[in-house]
Amino acid sequence: MDTPADVGLIGLAVMGQNLVLNLADHGQRVAVYNRTTSVTEDFTAGPAAGMDVVGHADLADLVAGLSTPRTIILLVKAGGAVDAVLGDLAPLLSAGDIVIDGGNSLYTDTERRCREMAERGLRYVGAGVSGGEEGARNGPSIMPGGDAEAWPDLREMLQSIAARAKDGTPCCDWLGPGGSGHYVKMVHNGIEYGDMQVIAEAYSLLRASGMGHDEMSATFREWGEGVLDSFLVDITADILATVDEDGSPLVEKILDSAGQKGTGKWTVISSMELGQPVSLVAEAVYARIVSSFKELRVEAAATRQRSPAPVDVAADDLRDALYASKIVSYAQGFMLLRAASDENGWDLDLAQVASLWRAGCIIRAAFLDDVMAAFAGGADHLLLDPGFSAKVEAADPGWRRVVAAAVTAGVPVPAYSSALAFYDAFFSATVPANLIQAQRDYFGAHTYERVDRPRGEYFHTDWTGRGGTTTSRSYDA
Q1: pLDDT for 25-65, tens place per residue?
Q2: Of residues 119, 134, 185, 449, which has the active-site annotation?
Q3: Distances (CA, A) of 374 to 331, 334, 419
Q4: pTM check: above 0.85
Q5: Is the pLDDT of residue 431 over 70?
């Protein structure tokens, strides 16, 4: 009889295949299954040949070939595909078995599946996995949450395959109940959208200033050796240095229409629901949407009487704008994480979250050591942490010069400008929302609070002299 496998994995797309190889490298005997049998056969005969990987053409055979209690990882497309696999898989399992969803599932789906699987006696875990193909193969960041009783059985395996920060800490640890792991991964991806946008805006401005691609690459390379040390800055330097077959910069041959898979949108939706101003991520999502209107943009550009002017920006100012905007984006992201944790009772440790992102994931950066230290030191908000406050204040003049130059020249910088607007609003003791409340009370009797009365007392004015004393609050039943 064959030796039972330690873990099963369903879904052999690029992430699934590389995670299997990673697991096998770390002493796990892995049973694999893919709906298309030929994919399983090609994988076991190809990349997994000679490794302790067993292919199965039937889901029941995979389950039967696992040691008990069974552990099965799903790496299938988020949404209905996960429910479909669970519908076939769950009846084959026994009480105490563990199912890990390693895809980008919406956290509310994970919350529901945790409850449904618990009713069957199964331990369900939603684990965000970040790092792309390379991370899955060599060590991703893993963000597990769900049924806490599963963690003692998973800790050794998951931490062994995870990336490790420079201090040797594995970038994998238990986050909390329900959908907390997938929520943290969702916000990670939202921040990733923001990071990519602020880098793209730097590239746009450098190009508009007349800088050549080799010099742009060298500039990003230099930035990556300082406060902007990160994976995304490093690969940007590589991309800008890459030429096409004709010797011209390859990046300029790529259509300027960016795709998205939904996690950035989910982050923005959640921020609206929780009343958190994740404005930079929102602008990054909308920038991708605007980019998708390529034909319409070309048509509109042809009708414009004025072309964008050359931009005169100093590279140091642009670095400061990028860095300050990045700090604002992370501050907003962690505001959202704190609010979601409070709303759902997850008790997220924000320092721990930052720790998990220090290696393996797409947003990995030296900067995250400072974020982790700030929250470990008791910071409630990154922009109020003395260290980060000083960093933004130092970057402030250059940041403003960049935004002003871009606006004057007609070059869009939605991330830089929205981050600056948030920063200014956040540090303003007064904003013009008093007028908005007056307008709301004028047309809808929505009431307002007064600065000379305690919070929680509400007032209404008969602005026209033709109204009454009834307010919108009277409609509460």
Answers
A1: 999 999 999 999 999 999 999 999 999 999 999 999 999 99
A2: 185
A3: 11, 12, 20
A4: yes
A5: yes
Burial class of residue 199, CB neighbours in 10 A (0-12, 13-18, 19+): buried
- Catalytic annotation, pick one of 77, 116, 192, 245: 192
Q: Is 185 a catalytic residue?
A: yes
Token pair, residue 106, equals: 């919406």
Burial 63-81 (b: 16+ CB within 10 A, else e): bebbeeebbbbbbbebeee
Given pLDDT bands bounded at 50, 70 and 90, which one contains residue 475?
very low
Q: Report the C-alpha gap between 418 and 404 in whole angstroms.
A: 13
Strands 123-130 and 141-146: antiparallel
> Kind of pairing, strands 141-146 and 53-56?
unpaired
Contacts with 408 (C-beta within 8 Å, 6 or more apart), sequence order: 309
Q: pLDDT value at position 477?
A: 36
Q: How far apart are CA 98 and CA 461, in angstroms?
A: 60
What whole-number distance in Å separates Cα of residue 120 and Cα of residue 96?
9
How much is the mean pLDDT over the chain? 94
Q: Helix (H, G, I), strand (E, B), or coil: what is residue 327?
A: helix
How far apart, in whole angstroms, are the C-alpha atoms of residue 253 and residue 348?
43
Place of tokens 């300027």: 256
CA distances from 259 to 99, 284, 293 (A): 30, 12, 11
* Selection from 205, 400, 218, 200 nearest residue 290 by Cα: 200
Helix axes 180-208, 315-344, angle to 10 degrees: 160
Question: In one letter, which amino acid is 423?
Answer: Y
Q: What are phi and psi of 208, to 5 degrees?
A: -70, -20
Question: Is 192 labeled as catalytic in the residue annotation?
Answer: yes
Secondary structure (DSSP) of 7-28: EEEE--SHHHHHHHHHHHHTT-
